[in-house]
Amino acid sequence: MSIITELESLRDSALERISQAADLAALDAVRVDVLGKKGSLTGVLRGLGALSAEERPAVGKVSNQVRAALERALEARKALLAEAALSARVAADAVDVTLPGRKRLPGRAHLINQITAEVVDIFTGLGYAIAEGPEAELDYYNFTALNHPPTHPARSATDTFYVRDLSEGGASGPITDVLLRTHTSPVQVRVLEQQKPPVYVLAPGRVYRRDIADPSHLPQFHQIEGLVVDEGITFGDLKGTLDYVCKELFGKDRKTRFRPHFFPFTEPSAEVDVSCGICAGSGCRFCKYTGWQEILGCGMVDPNVFGYVDIDPEVYTGFAFGMGVERIAALRYDIPDLRMLVEGDMRFLRQF
Amino acid sequence: MHVSMKWLKELVDVDLTVEELVDRLDMTGTAVESVRAVGEGLDGVVVGSVLTKEPHPDADKLSYCSVDVGGDEPLRIVCGATNFEAGDCVPVACVGATLPGDFTIKKTKLRGLVSEGMMCSSPELGLGGDASGLLVLPPDAPVGMAFAEYLGQADTVVELEVTPNRPDCLSMVGVAREVAAITGKHATAPVSVPEESGVPVHDAVSVEIADPDLCSRYTARLIRGVSIGPSPEWLAERVTAAGARPVNNIVDITNLVMFELGQPLHAFDAATLALRDGKAAVTVRRAGAGERLTTLDGQERVLDPNMLVIADDSGAIALAGVMGGENTEVSDTTVDILLESACFEPTSTSLTSRSLGLISEASTRFERGVDAEGCVRAADRAAALMAEVAGGTIAPGVVDVYPVPAIPGVLEMRIDRMNAVLGTGIPAGEAAGILTALGLGVEPVGEGLLRVSVPTFRPDLEREIDLIEEVVRVWGMERVPVTLPGGRGRVGRLTSRQRWMRRIDGAMRAAGLNETMTYSFVDPGDHERIRMPLGEGETLVELVNPMSEEQAVMRISLLPGLLRSVSYNQRRGVPDVHLYEIGSVFSTSEGRKLPREHTAVGGVMAGMWSRPGWTGDDHPLDFFDGKGVIEALVDELSPRHFQVRPADLPWLQPGRSAEVLLEGKVAGWLGEVHPSVADAFEAEAPIVAFELDAGVLIATARPVRTYTEVPRYPAVTLDVALLVDEKVSAERVEHAMRKAGGPLLDSVRLFDVYRGKGVAEGRKSLAWALSYRAPDRTLSDDEVRPVHEKLLRKVCGAVGAELRS
Ligand SMILES: [Zn+2]
Hints:
heterodimer, A: alpha+beta, 2 domains, 7-stranded mixed β-sheet, rod-shaped, B: 805 residues, CATH 2.40.50.140, Phenylalanyl-tRNA Synthetase, Chain B, domain 3, 20 helices, binds zinc ion
């Protein structure tokens, strides 16, 4: 057998083994067997030295061709096997994508503060600053400067929580000078004492009234107070502002209506209803068949209040409003029992 | 104010349906609380006559009666009321009747005796009025008649919520006037001209007002020879519709006139008054200190000089404007009536009625203000009715002491101002028309100016703005065009503090905690339970009038409320609790009026982050989960220096208790709640908790962080395990490393803490990864080695560590 035939047969058998190699390890074994230092092709080539000078070029050429063919085949097979190995690995890596993810869920904000933040954002958009005041407040700010006569029923010890006054000569009876504010309105007075018009402020906060906790009452709840004092402020501005806010809060299709009412610190005063979201105004049990849900109280700042803070009512007019956050929550989510808001039940808090 | 539609229609020619009228009232400022058809839902209720009344043998407070309801046999009824006798007629709900409130009457046994129905009070029948006893009907009430039929039926009673500024609407004529104004109709007021005869009242009665500041007018009329008896049906019906209980003809007339005209009246039995110079001498004066009066309800009242009384020479005979005295009460044998029609000062009446807990229809009206100008008219009307109904004769004249006459106010209203406040263009003529319809005198004076005279029945109209309000509420708030304020110079913003609070809030949630709210007031014992001391000289903020002892003081910490919430969840089978609250905490000290108020940020964590899932990567929450929350918050706020330092805090478990310091200031605490504290709140340990002062958080937060160059060259990281004594803290080792590391030490990370096999008792192994880096070149191992070895030598020396091999 000529050496060329030997080379060709070696090539053919090697190619056969390459094509049969099942994995990269087997393929590499073939490579070592044939092309390695002790490989069969290497062995053949080592014998080249024994050839005559005439034979050498032809055999050399064939052997180079064989080597090249084998290297190509090896490369091709390697690529093929690598791809197959990757596919196999990927296939083995498949997961049940319906298994739950690894997570640490962020916490939720309390419903009341979510609503408050929403209202705050609406009003900052309308150009209001946000003001705050103490929850333990002086009678002066809570009642007197808000034009409440001394005998106003809200001042009674059955309606308002009074706080022990430890100042020298502080009243010791059931009614002291210090109380838990019954509304956020005292912030109005505090703001007007510190800031001259124009005033556009919103004051959210916790307030207290002596109600027994039951499904529709809590002795502590939250209000959002609004106050605007500027030149040329009208009742129409009040209507427009609250109409806008109610639509933002409850939906564009909701209507508002203003019913004249009485509050000591605004005049004219009104209660504001928003059209019932359940029945769209046709009447249902949620709106007691009126088609309307009461949502807030408001009015033009009473000139007497301006008197307490030294603002000239001939130059400035203003409006004020107060809304109950729990009430908005109850209307929006149909919460059956307000006490759930203070129980801290994780299953309740996580819902909002 | 209960308004009978039947009655109202006699006073104003209103032609709206009840529904339309209610709507109009609602939209003009008189809220309607309820509308009810009289007699509605009273099927099965009949007029009964009590035949016998005996004490229940087994119950002190019950009686056992037989009641004729027109059937073959009288009914046997067990009753708890005491205000009736055998012979009285009362409404009886028979078995099967369903009363308002969906209450069905069944045959029952009460303390062993069968009861076949229920005798009813007025409110039980949905009629309002006195709930303290049965509705006793006049003796001539037809026994067996359906009660609805007896009531005269076919009436609708509208209950109005009269705002405190509208005393005039506590009368039928006032409501009629209001209804006329808002519907464009006309109201008429009943007028009675009394026919007088006999000895003039001035010869029989004298009146003196000693304290005119508390009584601006006192009038008296004398009606002689009345016969006291039950009211005729029309009178009883009317009084019932207005929400009162018929008593007798004289009392019912005073009530009728009060409901009609808004003027409370009082009838004295003239014969019981002490005479002076042959006259019944009435004095209106302050009570003496400790003076006593037994009021009509049989209670002896101890009075003080802040209270106004009507007195004769023998002493007090009535509490002015609040309640009459028993000693001068009209009884069945009364013949002559001394009729009082007066005007008492609102504040004093209100304080008196509240301090004695006596709130009556009369006091409610005086409290809001009664029109002094109406006194005589009301006296005339009542006297005429007494003559008509009770057969009396009216003594000529009225004793009228009127030291402080009510003066009608005169106001001016600028049309421009009105439209400027409202944002409207209401013409002067229209505004004038509205004010006129409300009973005001209106006179245009000059361009765009109205002069308005205000009758004394509208004391609420004192200023221009009051008139503007009257115009807009009748003209229609719904007609005011909607605008938005266009003012310049306003900026919508959150203050810096508010923005920080939002970031703190957000960081709490991002760390996995859910926001909750707890009560601001707590049990005074809670602070003992958490054993949290107050600051030097500080005390708890106490409520003077708490709802209960469990809510008697303001919280000094959010912890008690949060622990209660943990307990609430655990008891309901929710073991994993992650809550935070941001809220006010309070304290005070001697000499302070307003308490101190701080905003606290508190959290509690119990159980696990979540129940172990298929990935099996959860663990019971402990100190380090709480610390992780605080570290996340610190990362958000970026204070310059943050430290957690061991501290002995009584409410925390020793050894798992720490203070949180920001820039060297104590910002709050962190730890695992002491098991016995958890136990005191019925919560199950372990519970991780923390509380931080928002003020310190914000004061130390950095609004602008400093930029440091992002590394450009790789770090060389070397691991080392150091054996140290248990008492050597990780922080101390880290400090030593940083101190010894020099400029090349880039970061230090603790990745393992090990105790046990291979580590001596009382020692622990801390494994660290130390990264070295240069800002301007890639470090070689050869360069790092000596630095690292020097660091280790120094650290070992500083903290007594040895290398663990
Ligand atoms: Zn509805």
